[in-house]
Design a protein that fits this description.
Rossmann fold, three-stranded antiparallel beta sheet, seven-stranded mixed beta sheet, about 290 residues, alpha/beta, globular
C-alpha cells in the first residue's frame, strides 16, 4: 500500500491468530511522513471535530469515579486536554515535537512535555491516562503500555482510541482502507490483539465501544473513493488544505459530489457495524490491575 504523503510503498505483516499487524518496513525517521498541515483541518471541519471530541470527553467524565491526576499522551489539538482540566482534572499532555507541543499547550492552557514517558517519574502517580489515536503510531506499543502501567495507580484507568483492523470497513476496503495510514500507523490492532497487549502489560480490558462519529462514517467515504481510483486521501487533503494535490478541478468536484451519497451510506454502515461490534474505530477502557505482593 502507498503512503499518500510521499508515495512510498509499505506492507502490513499480520498475525493470523490475533489479527495484530505491523507496518513494514519501519522508517528510521518519521519526520518526512508528517506534512506541515497534517491533521490541521479547515475551520468547518475543525469546528465539527471539536464538538465531537468535547462530547466524548463529557462521556468519559461521567463514567470516571472522580477527577484526579491525568496524562494525555499525544495531545494533538489540545481540545481534550483543555476539557479535562475544565472538568477538574490535574492534567498534563505530551507531543512528539517542540512545535506540536507548543501548539497543544497554547490550545489547552496546560503543561506539556516533548517525547516519551521518560519525562514522567516511573511511579504509580496517575489516575487516568488517555492515548486517543496514539498507540497505532508507536513502533513498540507493548513497551509503551508497560511503561504507562508502571505510572498508573492500581485501579487507575487507561483510555485508548485505535483503529480496528478487523472492522467491516477494513475488510471492505482492504489495501485502500483509510485508517491503515501507513507508515504513520506502525501497528494495527484487532479487539483480540489489544486485549492481549493490555493483559500482558498489567491492565485488564473492562470496556470496548465502537461508536465514532468523528472517524467512522468519513472513513467509509474516503476508503470508497480510494477503492474507486480517485487520488488517494483526496478528501483528507482538501479538509487539511494540503497543497500537494494532483487531481484537476473536475475530478475534485466529482469526488466531492460523490461524498454526499457515500456519506449517507457510510453513516448507515457505521451504525450497523457499531451494533455488530465491528466498527472502524475502537474506544478501549482498561483498569490497572493490583500489583501482587511478591
Amino acid at each position: 500500500m502507498r503512503d499518500y504523503v510521499t508515495g512510498e510503498r509499505f506492507q502490513i505483516v499480520q498475525c493470523p491468530r490475533c489479527g495484530f499487524g505491523l507496518t513494514d518496513p519501519v522508517p528510521l525517521s518519521m519526520d518526512r511522513y508528517y506534512p506541515p498541515r497534517y491533521r490541521r483541518f479547515n475551520a468547518l471541519a475543525a469546528f465539527v471535530l471539536r464538538r465531537l471530541y468535547l462530547r466524548r470527553v463529557d462521556r468519559w467524565h461521567a463514567r470516571l469515579p472522580r477527577a484526579g491526576r491525568a496524562l494525555e499522551l499525544g495531545s494533538g489539538t489540545g481540545w481534550m486536554l483543555r476539557a479535562l482540566r475544565e472538568r477538574g482534572w490535574l492534567a498534563v499532555g505530551s507531543e512528539r515535537t517542540v512545535t506540536a507541543a507548543a501548539a497543544a499547550r497554547d490550545a489547552a492552557g496546560a503543561p506539556m512535555f516533548v517525547g516519551d514517558l521518560s519525562a514522567i517519574r516511573d511511579e504509580p502517580l496517575l489516575d487516568l491516562v488517555i492515548m486517543f489515536h496514539v498507540l497505532e503510531h508507536l513502533a513498540d506499543p507493548q513497551a509503551v503500555l508497560a511503561a504507562v502501567a508502571r505510572r498508573v495507580k492500581p485501579g487507575g484507568t487507561l483510555i485508548l482510541g485505535i483503529p480496528n483492523i478487523a472492522s467491516w470497513q477494513s475488510r471492505f476496503a482492504g489495501r485502500s482502507w483509510m485508517h491503515l495510514e501507513v507508515p504513520r500507523h506502525l501497528c494495527h490492532f484487532s479487539p483480540d490483539a489489544i486485549e492481549r497487549a493490555l493483559g500482558a502489560s498489567g491492565f485488564r480490558m473492562t470496556r470496548i465501544d465502537f461508536q465514532s462519529f468523528e472517524h467512522d462514517p468519513f472513513g467509509w467515504v474516503q476508503s470508497t473513493l480510494d477503492r474507486l481510483g480517485f487520488e488517494q486521501s483526496l478528501l483528507v487533503k482538501l479538509l487539511a488544505r494540503m497543497q500537494d494535490r494532483h487531481s484537476d478541478v473536475l475530478t475534485t468536484l466529482v469526488a466531492a459530489l460523490l461524498a454526499i451519497p457515500l456519506g449517507v451510506v457510510g453513516l448507515v454502515l457505521a451504525l450497523a457495524s457499531w451494533r455488530a461490534g465491528a466498527g472502524a474505530v475502537m474506544e478501549v477502557w482498561a483498569t490497572r490491575q493490583e500489583r501482587s505482593a511478591g
